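Problem 12. The chain below contains 154 residues. Write out its predicted structure in token notation.
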Amino acid sequence: MIPYKLTRSIDLKIDKQTCWDFFSSPQNLKKITPDYMGFDIVEGGDCKMFQGQIIAYKVSPLLGIKSDWVTEITHVKDFDFFVDEQRFGPYKFWHHKHFFTEITGGMRCIDEIHYLPPFNLLAPVLNSLIIRKKLNEIFDYRTEILKKTFGELV
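Solution.
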């Protein structure tokens, strides 16, 4: 099965250092995740991100049911990008690239996610009815918080 892809981009009024400091701190994930997700870092998120870092979370993606999610930071190029991959969690496959590019007046932040829902035979239905909508909702929330925090370039 070919993974689904979601790409989101936002241009923020933020300098390169502030951008990197914010996004490379796992603790800031909670700030840009909707409260109803019940997102909590359980282990591994108490320091600045580094390649090989394992971060364990508790999250409630659907119906308030708590789920364990473990990701590994597989690639880091300071100030430019990092990649997190699910090692254990709600998806069959999760590969999330974060890119940061200087632009006039700020930074362009791009999220590119490749994912596969669980349950092979039901994956297309789950994705179209629930998962894709939920991911868009989460990233819409993230966009609003980032705009309020840093300001958006128009």
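Discussion. The mean pLDDT is 94. Students who got a different answer should revisit the alignment rule from Section 12.3.
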